[in-house]
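Help! Submission page says 'invalid entity' but I think these are all valid:
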Amino acid sequence: MKGRAMRVAILGATGQVGREFLRILEQRNEMEIGELRLLASARSAGSTMEFRGKKVEVIEVSEKAFEGVDIVLASAGGAISKQWAPVAVKAGCVFIDNSSAFRMEEGVPLVVPEVNGHVLKDHKGLIANPNCSTAQLVVVLKILHELGGLKRVIVSTYQSVSGAGKEGMDELDLQTKALCKDEQHAPKKFQKQIAFNLIPHIDSFADDGYTKEELKVVNESRKILEIPNLPVVCTAVRVPVRVGHSESVLVDLEKKVSVAQVRESLSNSPIVEVWDQPEENIYPTPLDCAGEDPVYVGRIRPDTSSENGINLWVVADNLRIGAALNAVRIAEYMVKHDLVGQKVAN
Amino acid sequence: MKGRAMRVAILGATGQVGREFLRILEQRNEMEIGELRLLASARSAGSTMEFRGKKVEVIEVSEKAFEGVDIVLASAGGAISKQWAPVAVKAGCVFIDNSSAFRMEEGVPLVVPEVNGHVLKDHKGLIANPNCSTAQLVVVLKILHELGGLKRVIVSTYQSVSGAGKEGMDELDLQTKALCKDEQHAPKKFQKQIAFNLIPHIDSFADDGYTKEELKVVNESRKILEIPNLPVVCTAVRVPVRVGHSESVLVDLEKKVSVAQVRESLSNSPIVEVWDQPEENIYPTPLDCAGEDPVYVGRIRPDTSSENGINLWVVADNLRIGAALNAVRIAEYMVKHDLVGQKVAN
């Protein structure tokens, strides 16, 4: 069921997530695209990118660039979003923002459509896309909550370098190549060597010893699941993997739920794939999931440390469900439910 | 305080942990070594290894090879240990075994000297060295238990390829080099590609969906800490790191303990180093800890999901505290407490 053709702008088109937006819009066909505008900084303006076999010129972001645009898909960092979101919304656009700038703001819907799409009906033009590690997690948590009631969530992440953008990917590649030749490549994007190493530090540290990345998982999960006091704790770790975030997740439930029930409910989700036949070495790894749309779940087993716990291994492409794909799905949901162009900011 | 000079044999001398035994015995000076015998399979016999500047010939393991030996440090796999441990014990040796063959056997002490060295007084010749991921964990758990009483332990591991021996290290190196040249190097030691990937599968799967590696952490921790029903759960994951196991550890305690108290108690341990100044990017990574003796702890913070929880990041060299170093420390403890040559098997 398609609505009218949408005029879409990608803000931050030349970045890692920007490129993923293009690929995803090419592959999907849920939303008809009448016009595609590629917006970036003055530095990137003038270059061209290909979309459905045609070259599209990248233009510099400006007030004028948002005129006549229905939907802006933004992934250019918090500062750029803060600058341009009000402009775009004033111009009548729906601004779907991948940065963390507005996520926790009262009145800004923070959405994974399959989890809480219903909150979009009250939007005021600005929509926030959750943090990558949160998006894949809440898809699974929502299903577990409906099954047995969430009581406590304990997460340890294994996050790929693409979460730190193209510079992160380049640093892993160049550092690895250098080390393979017994040469050095000093860390710049990351705090320490990431090749053949782990870094338990993503985003900056807050006062309580947690990183902002860890607090995002806590706070954004609570907001998306609409359980404001849900006990959640996270340890976020960068690993030398290119694309794909993995999560070791332990969930305490209010009531006892069997592994078979969990498996069935997860399998029923259109965006989850259960890969869980350990005896045949079937479980997801980030390499399997890079470039794919689903949230993959494996290693589903009863907790050995509590009565009603379920232990799982959740893997997804952080550039897709964790960023570009989820933003596009928000746009599709809004088009389908006729929520684009209906509201403007106060 | 040294005892008499010990006649030491290393069984599995040419393996990854065997070589680490040699390095550690060279570096340490707690136990005087009168004679060092290097034992291996017929295949490796005849080769030589260097110890304190002298070449020592590797000889084939046999009944005769244990004659006159006080202490055997064994790391040649479970099957070899099952074959030779009874022979060595009968010959009057103390047999300190790094394999999992005897760890859970009633009457066999499973020991990290700083945690439960006292159980060695009842030994019957055969002593088990815990699994690598358990050893570094229980050092920290013991201290937390004394502080606040352990209630529940939740662990996710990030384990290096050296835990799978030299073949594991070679596979990561060769696979990485191949991929850097856009070539392939098929997995052989590991179930899947390990370069730029993660594998949530270490050792084989048991019936309940847990791997034996995960169950080792549960069962061995309970035995070493002497808390038979301690709620423990583990997810064990192989990561593309050469040496050094990392663990994201969440501990529920019986009573409230401050981060400052935890930091102080850990700092007081002679075998723990606290690296925990996040504002200066000070926290342990496996690269920092490879080749070092301590158990490193960082990211110490109160749990955001419970009243009395403590969250930590524990890193150590899996070939040292997780294998060779701990075995040598068991030997040193036994020499110091005059427990070598005092007992023989029934």
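Support: the input was valid. A stray whitespace character was the problem, and the output above is from the cleaned input. Chain B touches chain A through 58 residues (CB under 8 Å).
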